[in-house]
Design brief:
By secondary structure, this protein is mainly alpha-helical. 73% of the residues lie in helices and 0% in strands. The chain has a domain of 75 residues. Helix 1 packs antiparallel against helix 2. The longest helix is centred in the middle third of the chain and has 27 residues.
Length: 159
């Protein structure tokens, strides 16, 4: 959208020196008020702008921020992009509405005859000795470990 122009090396140097000096002042006050650990942390932060300048990372960050700003402004001010956002929202609403209608009306996906048959066969299976499974209305089958845990809980008055 806008162009800041070419920033020369002198401007980057002045920015770096300014940030480093401000960081140095902040480091000195942090050392005086909060001790050596805060002073060392402040010194570490103070050296970051100088290191970013010397490795040309400072210039890279400004290019990245500029590119993100251009993308964001084109996103905000483009009616075509907003039409896409509205259509995506409408799509999500339609998916949600279809789920709500399906659960409210109780309609489930149609099952085939083979899936019904296999479900019926699985409920009529017998165990390895040929005995039929225990009726569902009777007492629940309890695992030995689970019974031990329940006994300990009952003993302590927790149920």
């Amino acid at each position: 959208m806008w162009d800041a122009g070419v920033v020369d090396d002198v401007t980057w140097g002045v920015l770096t020196v300014t940030l480093t000096l401000l960081g140095g002042v902040w480091t000195w006050f942090a050392y005086q008020r909060r001790g050596l650990a805060a002073g060392l942390k402040g010194a570490a932060f103070t050296l970051v702008p100088l290191a970013a300048y010397l490795t040309e990372t400072l210039q890279m960050f400004t290019r990245v921020v500029g590119a993100v700003a251009d993308w964001a402004t084109s996103l905000v001010f483009s009616p075509v992009v907003w039409l896409g956002v509205v259509l995506a929202g409408l799509s999500v609403l339609l998916f949600g509405a279809s789920r709500a209608v399906a659960t409210r009306s109780g309609s489930a996906p149609a099952r085939t005859a083979t899936s019904k048959k296999s479900k019926k066969q699985s409920t009529e299976k017998t165990d390895a000795l040929g005995a039929a499974p225990a009726p569902r209305g009777g007492a629940p089958v309890v695992d030995d470990d689970l019974a031990d845990i329940e006994a300990i809980l009952r003993k302590r008055g927790i149920s």
